[in-house]
Design a protein that fits this description.
Elements: E1 5-6, E2 21-22, E3 44-55, E4 58-69, E5 73-77, H1 84-91, E6 99-104, E7 107-108, H2 114-119, E8 122-124, H3 137-143, H4 159-179, H5 195-207, E9 213-217, H6 225-240, E10 244-248, H7 252-258, E11 261-266, E12 269-274, H8 276-279, H9 283-290, H10 301-312, H11 325-335
Parallel strand pairs: 5-10, 5-11, 8-9, 9-10
Antiparallel strand pairs: 1-2, 3-4, 3-6, 6-7, 11-12
The structure holds adenosine-5'-triphosphate (ATP).
Adenosine-5'-triphosphate binds next to strand 4 and helix 1.
Region (Disordered): 1-20, 311-351
Domain ABC transporter: 46-292
Keywords: ATP-binding, Nucleotide-binding, Transport
Amino acid sequence: MSMANATPDESGTAGARTDTVDYMTDTRPIASEPAAPGCRKRDPILVAKNVTRAFGGINAVDVEYLEIPRHKITALIGPNGAGKTTFFNLLTGFDQPNSGEWTFDGTSLHGVPSYKVARMGMVRTFQLTKVMGKLTVIENMRLGATRQEGEKLSKALFKNIWGGRERDITRHADGLLEKFKLDAKREDYAASLSGGQRKLLEMARALMADPRLVMLDEPMAGVNPALTQSLLDHVRNLKSEGMTVLFVEHDMHMVRNIADWVVVMAEGRIVAEGPPAEVMKDQAVIDAYLGAHHDVDLGAAEGIEALEQQLSQDEESVVGTADEGILGHAITEQDGRGPDEDEGRDRKDAP
Ligand SMILES: Nc1ncnc2c1ncn2[C@@H]1O[C@H](COP(=O)(O)OP(=O)(O)OP(=O)(O)O)[C@@H](O)[C@H]1O
């Protein structure tokens, strides 16, 4: 795994100082005050204030204050319907809030359309991948480049200049395809890829924009266990290369293994945040996920087993139903099985 070094200034942003930080081993505190909903971070890349979105009478998102730490991997977790995807949609310009402000690297993104958000260095993927099935893998990759001058009318007039740019885009795309082990699929239609390969393609395509913040909406959903480790490694690599990652995930294996920081949403609000091991023990988190099953530690493998036993005797248990969410993933992991490739999930994405 490559380890990029940076030259951060006091706040951690790239600057003139010469001290280097390895993002993978940086142990400086993430928060500058005790971990709690809305706590300040040492070096936030994204700051959201009073962001709200209602659908009819439901407050889907009601985030008073949230900072996302730079150069870290943050997991956004919460039960089904907590507002995670809606919050992603708002932050990335795929939906408009009823109120609120948010800044990315100090620049307000309120009202900025999604394609400009991506150009500014903040990209996202979707729960249901949005790769173009009728285009080849390489064509999909080229679509991820942020400036498609080759598409413009002026192309005819400045063919040589744009031709050079097109070659750069293709070179960049080929490099990423190799990294994501999709180079052998270069000329295949995206529709022919497995669910996991489509996830990888979407992630690789997002990197065509040279982002500073990568937002992944349920990267593990529909991914075959054979590709799980590779996906985790790719996410870790993003961090080692200096990117910040924010991901929504129900898969607690992924959260426990790669997140530096966890933010918990329930009913639109941030109800807890902190390091993974601490958050999994937080009463608000346990309440949000488990209701009456308070006495289990989701951060420990034995905790999941204990929960499975409790739930098997519980008539109201959702395990085994379409609503099982986090519980099903955790228990499946214990069984050594994973979700089926391309499993159908009742989810919605941004338009
Ligand atoms: N376009 C929409 N129209 C009406 N209601 C919506 C719309 N999008 C989301 N909602 C509602 O907003 C709430 C939050 O949904 P959202 O999809 O953001 O939750 P989530 O935390 O991402 O859930 P999941 O983990 O199941 O994906 C839910 O009650 C949902 O039904």
